[in-house]
Structures are given as structure tokens and as C-alpha cells.
Amino acid sequence: MKLIELTLHNYRGIINANISFQNYSLLVGANNAGKSTIIDAIRAFYEKDGFKYKKENDFPFIGAIDQESWIELRFSLTNEESESLKEEYQTVDKILKVRKYFQTVERLHDGKTASGAIVAYKADGELANEPFYGAKNVQSGKFGDLIYVPAVSKVDDHTKLSGPSALRDLITSIMSDVVEGSDTYQSLSDSVNLFAEGVRSMETEDKRSLSSFEKDLNSMLAPWEIQFNLDFTTPSTAEIIKSMLQWDIRDDNHDKPQGMEYFGSGFQRYFIYSLIQLGAKYAPTRTSKKTKDFVPSLNLVLFEEPEAFLHPPQQNCLARNLSVVSDSDDWQVICSTHSSHFVSRKASKIPAIVRPQRNNGIVTVFQISHEKWQVIVDSNQAINDVADSYPKVMGAMQDYDRKPEMEAIKYLLWINPERAGMFFAQNALLVEGPSETALINKLLDEGKLSLPDEFYILDCLGKYNIHRFMNLLGALGINHSVLHDDDGNKNEHAELNSLIENSKIDDVTIEVKQVPQDLETMLGVPTSKASRRKPQHLLYCYENGQLEKEKIEEFCGLVQSCFPD
Length: 565
Fold this sequence. Notes:
Blueprint: E1 2-11, E2 14-20, E3 24-28, H1 35-46, H2 55-58, E4 69-76, H3 79-84, E5 95-103, E6 118-120, H4 139-142, E7 145-149, H5 155-159, H6 166-178, H7 183-201, H8 210-221, H9 237-244, E8 249-251, E9 256-258, H10 265-282, E10 299-304, H11 312-326, E11 331-337, H12 340-344, E12 353-359, E13 362-367, H13 370-380, H14 383-389, H15 391-395, H16 406-414, E14 427-431, H17 434-445, E15 455-459, H18 466-475, E16 479-485, H19 492-502, E17 509-515, H20 519-523, H21 534-543, H22 549-560
Parallel strand pairs: 3-11, 3-12, 7-10, 10-11, 14-15, 14-16, 16-17
Antiparallel strand pairs: 1-2, 1-4, 4-5, 5-6, 8-9, 12-13
Helix pairs in contact: 6-9, 6-10, 10-11, 13-18, 14-19, 17-21
């Protein structure tokens, strides 16, 4: 089983949203954008660890279009899971779609309120009028297991052996398969029986014993014709783990146990993740068999801010490992993140990126579906029309540059951890290359420019790619402006300037501004012998006062006009 889609209605800041999920999906965006809202809605569906919908906190304060609040989840099933599902819910495409009512005026077939109930869509597409499998609280057994790792969590929450935890679940799954049928466990059972026989007859100095207690109590109960018996039982796997098993952490440099608080937050975070990763490796092998009982297999990991306390190389490593875990048949990972390193690892699978955005208390969710991705690819390839008209442009392209599948490869190469910062911006300024990026950042640092908060300058690797980034940012709802050279509107540049202008997206593209001729000409920068050295040459001239103050102010005004008040 895999979770493939979520629909949410009237939950906190989300009035209506539809989200698709991959094996490994990322929720990205600024603080308070709505990432945790999505995570918590899934948690409220499962109600694991007592997490439930609370009207006073979870029903929208503004924007609600009715008094209903619910979540719908769509799961893809394996053949065996689909065949074990009740026939009334079986579909040709092996999809199970269910709705959980958080609050509703709807009633079930018995007249009881549907609030809190999970109901499924039947094979004919109609929503059933009775709880899924006849009970309100079926989420723990019929939709796999939920593993939630909050942004701030204690190691004890994931490692305690006295109650539910990732560590206890792992050890239990291993021990239950190898211990209880073993000779070792039989020896333990024999020893318990031998201990029971001996301890029952043992007396204290004042002649008290378990056997005498049992005998005296039965004497008092004799008129009732009832017998009381004390039995010693062999502990089960769960009891052994809870009462007899302990763990510690030993530092190799000290060779003695250390408390978890002795180690830094980064290690503690990695330790928690390691338990999740081992969960995929040590999960019991499931034999394929038909069963009348619908018990699907899914371990759904909700991981908030996995990058917390990890330095960039560790973040890259963790991102790769989570991707590997999610490729297991019955594992799936959904992360909320502020890390550009995590996002850059998904640049080849842009539909796996979900970007919520909050405006005036209402959350809108942006995601590039496979259909929308095809629209972007078609729009990006408009550059081919320019190439066909100008041999110079065509000569710079390879045959495979025209293939649609190259678009994903281009984004994979371009969206490195630096550029991935654009996914978290409220406003982005798209420029042609590193010269503009370096100079604008320098002017910002010196206080000569003032741009909107949570602002990002995006180096588009040349004018030929600006429309590509406009299409990407527009589809993800990221406000952006464009600043590019007009290059005299000559030859192919007239076509490129027109392509950029025609790529504007309503309500998202704020301004498109042109630098007269080019940046160096506008600022009066002396000609550089090597084009690849233009950024350092430009900054050198600026730092040494070789650029006229009036021209710098003119450029600042042009940049400032990209984001009018």
C-alpha cells in the first residue's frame, strides 16, 4: 500500500487542497506557510499517540465555506491487498479512497453522527454510509503504521522499551520471529517452571509461604466451591523487552556508558533516523498469500525538518538514505523541510515537491502535477522556435537539447543547493548570470538597495533560460520579477526578449525590466578580455571606484523598480 493523494477540506488555514504524493515527497516553504498543517492533518487521520482533531484549534478561523471538516486519502493497493478488501470497495485500478470526517452534519445509516468516522468510497464511486469495516477507530489496522518524527523530539520518545517506540517495535519484530520458537526460549520456560515449584514451597522465618497463602485462601473460599491458583507464566517477548531488556550508549574513546544528553543534538537526530532506516531493513518478510482479512502493509514516515542540527554533507547523506528507504515496497516518506540541500536532491522529480503558501491566513498549496509538468516542458521548448530562425543559436544547441526529457535533466543540473533557495523565497529576482547576482548582493550588503523580505536573487545561467525559471516559479506560486539585458533588441535577442515578455504569469510575475544594451555598457565597465571573468572584473571596478556614482544609482533605481510598493 502507498498513499498517493490527499484532499483536505476546512482544516486550519487550508480551505480546500489536493496533494499528490510520491514514494518520497517534500513539503517546502517559508515558516508558517502550512507545512505542519498538512503533516498534522495526516496525523489526525491516524490518531496515533492520541493526536486528534480539535475544533477550537483546527477548524479555520477565517475562510471556511461551510461547517464541514474532513480529509480524504487515496491509497494504491497491491493485488493481494485489493483481493482481500471487501468486494464492495474493490476497484479496477486497485485504489482505496477513504474519508475521515473531523466534523460534519452527516449521519451514518444508524442515525449516529459521522464526526470522527472513516468511511470509504464504494466501487461505484459513491461514499458509503457506514464506517469502514464497521467501526470508527479502524485507522491503526487498515491503513498501515504511522511513524512521526517532530522537528523537536526527545530520543526517549523513540527508544523507550516500556511503551510504544521505534526501537521497541524493531526489537519486537526481530525477537518475536526468532525467540519464541527457539530452544533458548524453551529453556527459559523450563527454568520458570522450576523456579515456580521451588518458590511456592519456600517459607519465610515466620513460616509464611505462597503455598500456605494459597491453601488458607482456598479454605476460606470453600463454601463457594471455588479454587484460587497462583501460576507463574513464561514472559512473552513484549514482557521480556519491557522488563528485562535495557540499552546504553558507549563512547569508544571512554569505553563506558554515556547518557544520551552527553551527545549533541546532531547525533541524537541521526540516531532517531537510524532507527527508521533499520525499520525498512529489519521489517519481517511478508509472504504473498490471499487472506480474507484486509491488513495492508505500509510504514508511513512523517519527518519534520530532518535537516535539524545536521551540517550540509550530513543533510545530503540523510536525503539520499531517506530516498532509499522510500523505495522499499511498503515504506513511504513525507518530509517537511527548510533545507535547500534536501530540495536539490529532488530536482529530477519536481512533482514530488509540495509548496504551501499562506496569505492573509489562508493556505494555498502549489504542486506541479505530471500534467502541469508537461505544459512547462512544452512552454520551455519555445526556445526551439528562436533557434530555428537563427543559425547562431542553433549552432550552440545539440540535437538532444530539443528532446522533452532534457528539461528534467536541465533542472537537475541547475537546481543545486544554492539555487534551491528559490523554493523558500517570498520574492525572487531572475537575472541572467553571476555578474548581476554578485553586484546586487554587494549593493544590498552596503545598504544601497532595499528589497522585499525573504528575497532571493536567481542566476538563470543566461538569457536563454530565463523563461524556464519563470515557468517553474510561476507553477509553484513564487512571486518573481525579471531583470535582463535588452542587447539592443537585435537579431535573436529581439526574439528572446519577446519570449521572456510572453512568459509572464498573471499575479506571480511582478515586473520584467530591461537593462539598456547590457550591464557593462550601462555602468561604463571597461571591456574584459575574457567573458568568464566578467563578474570578478565588474566587482573589481566597483570596489576601486572606477564606476560613476550616478550610473550606480541609476542601476539601483532599475533594480528597485522590479519590486514596486
